[in-house]
Amino acid sequence: KNLVIEIDVYRGRHAGLVVAEVEFPDQVTCRRFKPPSWFGREVTGEKRYSNVRLANE
Question: Alpha-carbon distance 36 to 50, whole Å?
Answer without folding.
Answer: 21
